[in-house]
Amino acid sequence: MARRKIIAGNWKMNMTPSQAVALCAELKDLVKSDSVDVVYCVPAIDIVPVAQAVKGTNVAVGAENLYIEDKGAYTGEISAPMLVDAGVKYVIIGHSERREYFKEDDAFLNKKVKKAFEAGLTPILCCGETLEQREMGVTLDWIRLQIKSDLVGVTADQVKSMVIAYEPIWAIGTGKTATTEQAEEVCKGIRECIAEIYDAATADAVRIQYGGSVNAGNAAELFAQPDIDGGLVGGASLKADFGKIVNY
Q1: Residues 6+ away with beta carbon under 8 Å from 31
Q2: 167 among known catalytic residues
Q3: Domain extents for the chain?
Q4: β-strands 207-211, 59-63 pairing
Q5: Whole-angstrom distance, CA of residue 138 vs CA of residue 247
Q6: β-bridge pairing 59-63 and 230-233
Q7: 10 Å Cβ neighbour count for 222?
Q8: Nearest CA to 28 among 46, 13, 50?
C-alpha cells in the first residue's frame, strides 16, 4: 500500500501569536506540496491566528495537547471541541515531554487518544525510549508496551486513520539522530506490533513518522525507508529549512 507521507512541525513552546503569523507567511511558498501532508502543531494561543494564516493553503493545523473532558472546571486545559471549533485537524498525544514533565501515563494517554477520535481529530501518538533503555537492549519491548497500552479499546479503523510518531528521547533536541537503520528498525517493529494487535491491513495503513533531530540534510534518507512515512519535526520546523524537509 502506498501511504501518503506526512510532515508535521512540532513548535513546542515557541512563537508568540504575531511571530507565528510571520512564520506562516515565510513558509507559505516553501511548504507547497501536492505529494505530502503538511501540519503545523502549534501552541494553544497560536491556534486561531495560525488557522487564519494558513487558510486556503495545503497546511493543516495541529494542537500539541488536549484534555480528556469536553468542558468543566479544569483551569488551564483545552478541550477537543475547542480545538475542532478553532480549525484543528491533528493533535499530538504522548510526546516524551508530556510523559516526563507532566507525568502523563499510558492509561491517561489512552483516554486522550479515544477523546481525539470521538471529536474527529487525528491523533499523532508519540512513543520512544531513553538512551539507558536503548543501551539495555529493551527498545522494542518498551515501545511495544507503550503502543499496546495507548491503543487499548481503539478500533482497527481508527488506527488506520491515525499517525504514530517514533521519537527516541535521546535524539530530541540533542542534535543526535538515530541512524537510518535504527529508525527503520523501530518503525518496522511498530508496524509489526500493530499487525499483531489488529491485522496486516491495519498495519499497512497506519502512518508512522520518525522524529528526533530531523533536518534538511537527513530527511530524504530517513523518509525513503519502507516503514517511515514522514517526520515529526521539532526545531527545524521553525525556520525556512522546513520547506526543504517537506520537499525532500
Answers
A1: 38, 57, 58, 59, 242, 243, 246, 247
A2: yes
A3: 5-246
A4: unpaired
A5: 34
A6: unpaired
A7: 25
A8: 50
Find the catalytic residue in 104, 129, 167, 184.
167
Q: Residue 59 pairs with which residues in a beta bridge?
A: 38
Specify the CATH number for 5-246; select among 3.40.50.12580, 3.20.20.70, 3.40.50.150, 3.30.420.40.
Answer: 3.20.20.70
DSSP state of 145: H
The predicted-structure confidence for 62-106, as pLDDT tens digits, reads as follows 999 999 999 999 999 999 999 999 999 999 999 999 999 999 999
Q: Please tell me the pTM assigned to this model.
A: 0.97
Judge whether 118 counts as a catalytic residue: no
Catalytic-labelled residue, pool 64, 95, 97, 129: 95
- 19, amino acid identity: Q
Q: What is the pLDDT of residues 104-128, one digit of tens each?
A: 999 999 999 999 999 999 999 999 9
Which residues, in sequence order, are CB contacts of 73 under 8 Å at separation 6+?
A: none
What cell does 67 get?
484534555
Handedness of CA 68, 69, 71, 72 (dihedral sign): negative
